[in-house]
Design brief:
This protein has 125 residues and is of the alpha+beta class. The protein has helices at 9-15, 19-33, 39-58; strands at 5-8, 65-71, 78-86, 93-98, 107-108, 116-117. Helix 1 (9-15) crosses helix 3 (39-58) and helix 2 (19-33) crosses helix 3.
């Protein structure tokens, strides 16, 4: 189990929007889990992962370790990405789990800092 691929944000960024990354993840999934991902999941990887890499590099986090498609223990569920690094202020280990979404549009909820409204999900924040 574990991650299908482990690399830094800078190395992930080198893949760009190329389908090679999705193909590599699909091959790893077959070897680790025994089945291939759907074409829609591969398209999702090709569009979302380069954006994640670019955002991390823009934030100065190019050397952060990323575990892609990490399978959770005792479950068939996977986390899109786990970011592993060191908090720049405290020096303590820092881990962030990331679940990527394929939204094309969202709007911030007035008077909040952390809620959005997505049309596909109706009126709920």
């Amino acid at each position: 189990m574990g991650a299908l691929l482990r690399l830094t944000a800078t190395n992930l960024q080198k893949y760009g929007n190329d389908t090679i990354l999705a193909s590599r993840l699909a091959t790893q999934m077959f070897h680790n889990i025994g089945n291939y991902p759907s074409k829609s999941e591969q398209r999702s990887w090709s569009s979302s992962l380069p954006e994640l890499a670019n955002d991390l590099a823009s934030a100065g986090l190019g050397e952060i370790e990323i575990l892609l498609e990490y399978q959770l223990p005792y479950s068939s569920k996977r986390v899109d990405a786990i970011l592993c690094g060191t908090d720049p202020k405290s020096g303590n280990p820092s881990i962030v789990l990331v679940e990527l979404k394929q939204w094309t549009h969202c709007e911030g909820i007035p008077d909040t800092n952390d809620l959005v409204q997505i049309g596909a999900y109706g009126g709920k924040p």
